[in-house]
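Quick entry, no commentary yet.
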Amino acid sequence: MREKDENYMSIRIITDSTADVADRYLDKLIRIPLTVAFGEEEFIDGVTIDKATFYDKLETSPVLPKTSQPSPAAFEAVFKKLADDGDEGILITVTSKLSGTYQGACIVAEDFPNIRVIDSLNAAMGTGILAEYALECTDKGFGLDELSAHLKEKVSRICLVARLDTLKYLEKGGRISKTTALAGGLLNIKPVITIEGGEVVVLGKARGSKKANNLLIEMINSKGVDFPMPIVLGYTGRSRELLDQYIEASNSIWEGNVSELESTQVCSVIGTYAGPGAVAAAFFTR
């Protein structure tokens, strides 16, 4: 690590708009928005549409929204501003297995020696906790390449686990068959999912919300939480009622290990396929 000196460049942490972080970190990050479209109606994620409005539309729209990665010009504008200010930047993106954001950013970053791009191989709060940790590291004297390498080492320890309330949106998005979704709805099936190697994986299925919460708790316990590292819980939809129920049910995990559980509404990209009523936890494994 380098000694802190006023002559050194400041390292800024950048994310795309899919990274979900605790509110207290929002004004410390530079965020590059994706685009969300409901049919012909197009919005800039987090700029011309907020999460609450997105879920209002998701629950009432006859069509599933489509999302698109930031334009090269959007990346270039941020990278150039940092270069002009004499700063360096590390951009942490949503998994390259679900979006072209990482590849697009890497192409633009080739012209900016002050920028490094990291594929989180995760999404939503999974990307967010890496960004939160990166912010904590910026005052510790890391050089740009040193910090970039340090963060890449943490990617394999990110764990995002979620229980879904419905299979309807996975079916509408082409992730499962209509028959599977219909059977799941009739049986009140609540799948528990994670992201492994950048892709969505089903860990298990439970009948009813109570059993689904128990399965989510079981999966988190089996992974092993590194409590000193960032932890963020999340929910999809307009209400956080199901998240509050989960927090009460999972108190045995958190009590005595964290002073406060931070939470956020899940981003539009993941919310599109998870649908409303999902509950998730993101943490680093031991």
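second:
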Amino acid sequence: MDLAKTENIIDEYLEYQEKVGNRTELYREVAKSYKISSALYPGSHIDISPSLVIPKVVYVDNFKGTIKFFKNMNPIKSYLDEHKEYTQTCDISFIGNDYSEELGIEPVDLIISQYAGFVGQATKKYLKTGGILLCNDSHGDATLARFDDEFEFIGVIEGRNKIISSDLVDYFTMSLGKDIDLLKVKEKMKGPRYSLGAENYLFRKIR
């Protein structure tokens, strides 16, 4: 691959990162706090930031633009090798399918869910017992995890990517004591408006 094309691939990632916000610090904080060495990122698009701080990451997306991006794996690996924050070899792989299909991968320490639907529900079988689900509630993924008895709600991540693991009782509560309609969440693919919310939520798989 010529140098110009290599630079274009990395520029595409950096431009995307600038558009959605740099999540590297988010992934760094989670990886450090929970000793993460492997992750699955369903619906990743071209956000390869987890591989800067996590040695082994499997990316899954069926979007044509993402599939095209990951076909250029050599320059991606070169960039990650140059910028990674760990001593291990960077192990990155990509699956160009719908994440709800069988992925055929080994269980991981972390599943990342960012604006890609019900990732936690569809892929939790690939999460080790004791592993972490990092998700937001844009499509209701955090809500479904909160009321899933396979998960334990263990924290939220607020501004400046600070993990808060205490005083969590007020999260996932509706105003005026209203009940949460999980069927509506699934139908609308949208998280409810809670009295207290967070940018990201953390769950531990307990069974």
